[in-house]
Design a protein that fits this description.
Layout lengths: L6 E8 L7 H14 L4 E5 L7 H5 L6 E3 L2 E3 L1 E2 L5 E3 L16 H13 L6 E7 L6 H9 L4 E6 L3 H16 L4 E6 L4 E2 L6 E2 L7 H8 L3 E4 L4 H8 L16 H5 L1
Length: 247
């Protein structure tokens, strides 16, 4: 039983910058694909800062099936593997050097009983270091979704991740600007809390499709804190992502 032989498509979610919402975007993408009837898994490759289980309300430890670990499943049937599911306590720190962390990521690809999947979505850690390089060099990633926010600093760092993907000749599915604006609950006006949007300019600069803008939504924050991000309804942004790989 090969853990990675029945996976049709692998998508990575990256930014280069921490705190822009990669894990949230990873979950929302997976939820959207699952609601469309696809079989989906999430690999939490952010080994030292794993947050996928928290967002999806998962606890417990994976069971062993022969030489493989069996990923946990969410209510929608999304298969999840994260280091946090292997720790005794969720707040236990992972104080490992890069080579060990990279080895764990490879094990998540080779030694997990993923079974039949249409999509495996990989939540990458920030930066352009050991783990992103290991994933892009060792796992057949078909496309990368880049996540940014309106701040100039975020855009600068995300540009590094874009250039890394281009150098490695990994197609970029597109750009998503997270925390792009806040909709006033009283008047409906869009308030650009972190400054004006720069995603269109970035898309034009690097020749990358802009997939859309995600607002600051208190309901998304609430559901995420409750481990119920699967119940979030505003997912139209992600509904056509599967068309990229069908082209």
């Amino acid at each position: 039983m090969g853990s990675n032989k029945n996976i049709k498509h692998v998508i990575a979610v990256a930014s280069g910058k921490g705190g822009v919402g990669k894990s949230s975007v990873t979950c929302l993408l997976a939820v959207s694909l699952a609601r469309q009837g696809f079989k989906v898994g999430i690999m939490d490759a952010d080994v030292t800062g794993p947050s996928i289980p928290k967002l999806l309300g998962l606890n417990g430890h994976p069971e062993r099936e022969g030489d493989y670990l069996v990923p946990l499943k969410t209510e929608l049937g999304i298969k999840i593997m994260s280091l946090n599911l292997l720790l005794e306590q969720a707040d236990q720190p992972v104080i490992w050097r890069g080579p060990i962390i990279s080895k764990v990521v490879i094990q998540f690809w080779e030694e997990i009983a993923w079974g039949d999947l249409d999509y495996l979505v990989i939540d990458l850690p920030p930066g352009t270091g050991d783990v992103p390089l290991t994933v892009l060099q060792s796992i057949p990633v078909e496309g990368i979704m880049m996540v940014t926010t309106p701040q100039d600093l975020a855009g600068m760092v995300v540009s590094k991740a874009i250039n890394m993907a281009k150098k490695m000749e990994i197609p970029i599915i597109g750009l998503i600007e997270n925390m792009s604006y806040l909709v006033c609950p009283d008047c409906g006006k869009r308030i650009e809390v972190f400054g004006s949007s720069k995603v269109e300019t970035m898309g034009e600069k690097y020749g990358i499709k802009v997939l859309g803008r995600i607002p600051l939504d208190p309901n998304l924050v609430k559901l995420s804190d409750q481990g119920q991000i699967e119940k979030y309804e505003s997912l139209s942004l992600f509904n056509n992502i599967n068309n990229f790989l069908a082209e």
